[in-house]
Design a protein that fits this description.
ten-stranded antiparallel β-sheet, 16 helices, alpha+beta, two-stranded antiparallel sheet
Length: 663
């Protein structure tokens, strides 16, 4: 055939090689020979490649003929290594099966170690996948090359060493075959397998819902109040006095908490939340916030909430509320109450003249309905004519409160007002409670000044008065007369309401206030404080339905979707690894595809010693690694050049030129 210069205006000699030109390989030489019409020993003959100027001795070059795929001790060791390497995907299958076994079991040290192992999977799986899948495609292409295949398919398989190279072969060859698409999809399994192992096992806490019962102190316990009469109030003074003072003295810490110091549930002051929503139920904005005003420093005893989990239930209770219309400053007249006390609370009737100086003919004031007019008089200075007067209205209402507990820590989160009277609390009972009011108002101001002969102007204010003046700074003030008239009527009314309810709640059901209620209360509904069963010595607890939500201990949860992905990726990888292993040892051809040294095989421009065709690409490279090579023009003296891979130390390889034409 003939090669002519490319282009229309190229001038130069016509390079012609006869069609009979052939390349032959003989013992140690590559030679170009024409037909028999030309003499091999003539001047036109190609120079023998064994010319000493170009020949180098190659150490360990196989000079004798050999068989292919021979078994040697080294190859046996390599075979063992290949089997171990091909079996590594079994590790991921084992991890998957262990994750299945842990599904639904409680968290343990064994599971924690497995989780730590799975954290390494995004790194380990892609490395193993690349090693095994790359070997599979390499051995597959060699096997197909041995059997015979197309050059295009062989090139596609050569490029299947990563997802990008596989995709690149598809684009550059302009051949979208099923083999190429399958190789791309297979390589996409690498990141999927790593991520699926990482997401294989999670921890979860399951929720268990069930109905239960809670008991709380009956609202009707108020009928057993020690304020039922003056004599009973005197007998109970050593009971309610320490309870009230303990609640007041601990208020700096527990005033804004949803539970009192004994663990009883406190109810917010309803009027502070009644405008929170137009609905019937008024929501407490944040039941654990410090800005919630509670109606009392003493809460309602509750028994039965589980120590673990979340419990919701409703309770009912009746509470007092005082709204003050005025709080006036010092008067230029003496106080109209006895000299024994610095503070007086009484039902105030505008139609009756005031009872002065403890007159014996003063009628007992009664509360005939709600709101009941109440007057507070408090000494403001150590002078007889300096005192504060506040006019307030006392009301009594029934409320229902929604309570939520986290374990035994409970808080009211909503409230609504109910009708005061019901079948358990008829009008007759309310009349009795209103009669209790007179006794309560008389006893409350004298709680810590009982039967002292010192004149009121030299006693200073009571603990309650000091608390009303400043709830955050009242302990240890000593002798001082608090100027309560400086408080706004609203603030005075709120603080007086808190103390009034606190003192009221300390006069009934006192044995139930201290917490640590026995479990028998849940069964009997009674807290028996004596051997008798009378209502005075026993406290009744009523039942209410409760919704309980408990969380189980953390357990392992297998992600079945990611488990399936891991199994698919691992099985595909394991199948490819074993298939590649089998193909490697049934294929006879040496592994020469894809190596730079393979370009020297039977290359007339790269003379090598005789033999070496059984060498693999890496073996050939190891033997020829010191030879200088170049891809260049092997016909530098001709008008049209030719590009080939050649030895650069032979002097017949020129550099490429952009302006030169090549065949």
């Amino acid at each position: 055939m003939a090669y002519e210069p490319v282009g229309h205006n190229i001038k130069g000699p016509r390079v012609s090689v006869e069609d009979a030109l052939s390349i032959q390989y003989d013992a140690g030489s590559y030679s170009n020979s024409l037909d028999d019409s030309r003499d091999h020993d003539g001047e036109d003959g190609v120079k023998d490649n064994k010319d000493t100027s170009h020949e180098k001795r190659v150490q360990k070059w196989p000079s004798r003929s050999q068989k292919v795929a021979t078994i040697t001790p080294l190859k046996v060791l390599i075979m063992v290594f290949d089997v171990v390497l091909a079996s590594t995907p079994i590790m991921f299958l084992a991890l998957a099966f262990v994750a299945v076994r842990l599904n639904g079991k409680e968290v343990s040290d064994y599971g924690h170690k497995l989780e730590q192992t799975l954290l390494l999977s995004p790194t380990i799986f892609p490395l193993i996948f690349a090693a095994l899948m790359g070997r599979f495609f390499r051995h597959l292409e060699l096997w197909l090359a041995q059997r015979g295949t197309s050059l295009g398919r062989l090139e596609q398989l050569i490029g299947c060493q990563s997802v990008f190279s596989a995709l690149e072969r598809q684009i550059c060859l302009r051949s979208w075959s099923m083999v190429g698409l399958a190789s791309v999809l297979i390589w996409l399994l690498s990141p999927v397998g790593g991520q699926s192992a990482l997401r294989l096992l999670n921890q979860e806490v399951r929720e268990i819902h069930f109905a239960s019962q809670i008991r709380y102190m009956s609202p009707m316990t108020i009928m057993d109040s020690m304020m039922s009469g003056a004599s009973y109030a005197e007998l109970g003074r050593n009971t309610y006095t320490p309870i009230t003072l303990a609640a007041i003295l601990s208020s700096t810490r527990y005033q804004s908490t949803p539970m009192d110091l004994w663990g009883n549930v406190k109810l917010p002051l309803y009027r502070t939340i009644e405008n929170s929503t137009p609905d019937e139920w008024k929501l407490v904005p944040n039941s654990t916030a410090a800005n919630i005003t509670y109606a009392s420093l003493i809460g309602i005893p509750v028994v039965g909430p589980p120590s673990v989990g979340f419990t919701s239930f409703n309770i009912e209770a009746r509470q007092w509320d005082l709204k003050c219309l005025s709080n006036e400053g010092p008067k230029d007249k003496p106080a109209d109450f006895t000299d024994d006390f610095s503070w007086q609370l009484q039902i105030h009737n505008e139609t009756q003249p005031p009872c002065r100086n403890n007159a014996t003919d003063c009628p007992t004031p009664w509360c005939y309905g709600y709101p009941c007019p109440i007057r507070s008089e408090s000494v403001a200075q150590d002078r007889e004519d300096k005192f504060s007067i506040a006019n307030c209205e006392l009301s009594f209402d029934k409320y229902e409160a929604g309570v939520r507990c986290n374990g035994t820590a409970c808080a009211v989160y909503k409230m609504r007002k109910l009708g005061l009277l019901d079948e358990d609390y008829p009008i007759g009972y309310d009349i009795v409670i209103r009669r209790f009011t007179s006794t309560l108002l008389g006893v409350m101001p004298s709680l810590d000044f009982y039967k002292t002969e010192t004149p009121r102007y030299h006693k200073g204010s009571t603990t309650m008065e000091k608390w009303i003046g400043d709830p955050s700074n009242f302990i240890g003030l000593g002798f001082v007369n608090v100027e309560l008239y400086k408080l706004p009527p609203q603030a005075f009314g709120e603080r007086l309401t808190i103390l009034y309810n606190t003192f009221w709640q300390s006069t009934y059901g006192t044995r139930a206030l201290g917490g640590s209620l026995p479990a028998s209360v849940m069964e009997t509904a009674w807290l028996n404080t004596t051997q008798t069963t009378d209502s005075v010595s026993s406290v009744k607890f009523v039942a209410t339905d409760a919704d309980v939500l408990q969380k189980t201990k953390p357990i392992y949860k297998t992600n079945w979707k990611w488990l399936t992905a891991l199994l698919v990726c691992s099985i595909v990888l394991l199948a490819a690894a074993y298939t590649g292993l089998v193909l490697k040892y049934i294929t006879l051809v040496p592994d020469i595809i894809g190596y730079a040294s393979s370009l020297t095989l039977l290359n007339p421009y790269f003379p090598t010693p005789t033999g070496g065709t059984t060498l693999s690409g890496l073996e050939r490279t190891a033997l020829l690694r010191d030879y200088p090579v170049r891809i260049g023009d092997v016909c530098p003296d001709e008008a049209v050049g030719a590009i080939a891979f050649a030895r650069s130390d032979m002097g017949n390889v020129g550099r490429l030129d952009r302006k030169r034409w090549y065949i």
